[in-house]
Amino acid sequence: MSQDRRGGGRRSKLGRSGGGIAQLPWQSVKNPYPPMQLLDEERMEQLHKTSMRILSELGIRVMSEKVMDLFSKAGATVDRESNTIRIDESIVAEALRNVPSSFTLTSRNPEKQLHFGGNSLVFGLVAGPPNVHDRINGRRPGNLPDYQNFIRLAHHFNAIHIIGNQVVAPIELPANSRHLDTYHANLTLSDLSFHCTAIGRARAMDGINMM
């Protein structure tokens, strides 16, 4: 008689206990390998110089007066008629000297603290797909119940460290307020850190205030 017929074995025990999928405990992950060198030093320098030329000559078009004020105070050239900011290489170099090489993000559960930088790896959900698919119900437009189920799954599986911004878009909800519903799901169905939407300062601040 096979082990499954006798009611023994690992699969049967998991099924009876409702233990589900066996998994390792939640933990930080480190990459033991050095970064891949996709370009040699000469090509990296060419890429850097071209990037600096784009920033200093072509510039970046922005929509926020506050952002233009901040860049102006930092020494950038601001053309308010065309909403264009031009950033000299010296400003970029100074910013790189001052920015931290790593930082720590702490969720509501301090045991799930995340370290960004160095050889740390952080695995998260995607952001913004308009549709959802499973083998039972097939492909369908994004909606809040499916969004909530994704958050439950992210909370359950220890391989997930962080929740993306709207892991599926609940398109049945008003576009100007659906971020509040997804933030609420993130906060009530999981204790993981999550991305706030970057579509405007107000929506980002909503997420910060709700935390």
Report on this model:
It is a single chain. The protein is globular, with a radius of gyration of 23 Å. The chain is 38% helix and 15% strand. Helix 5 (144-156) packs parallel to helix 6 and helix 6 (178-189) runs parallel beside helix 7 (201-210). It has 2 domains: 41-98, no CATH class; 101-210, no CATH class. The longest helix has 18 residues, at 41-58. The strands form 5 sheets. The protein has a 3-stranded antiparallel beta sheet with strand order 2-4-3. It has helices spanning 10-17, 41-58, 65-73, 89-98, 144-156, 178-189, 201-210, and strands spanning 29-30, 60-61, 77-79, 84-86, 102-105, 114-117, 120-121, 131-134, 138-141, 162-163, 193-194. It is built from 7 helices and 11 strands. It has 211 residues and is of the alpha+beta class. Residues 1-8 and 10-17 have low confidence and may be disordered.
Give a quick rundown of the structure:
With 211 residues, the chain is an alpha+beta fold. Helix content is 38%, strand content 15%.
Sheet with most strands: strand arrangement: 2-4-3
Span of the ends, CA to CA: 56 Å
List how many beta strands DSSP finds. 11
Report mean pLDDT, rounded to a whole number.
89
Rg, alpha carbons: 23 Å
What summary fits the major beta sheet? 3 strands, antiparallel
Number of helices: 7
Supply the number of structural domains.
2
By secondary-structure content and strand pairing, the structural class works out as alpha+beta
H-E string: HEHEHEEHEEEEEHEHEH
The helicity comes to 25-40%
DSSP strand content: 15-25%
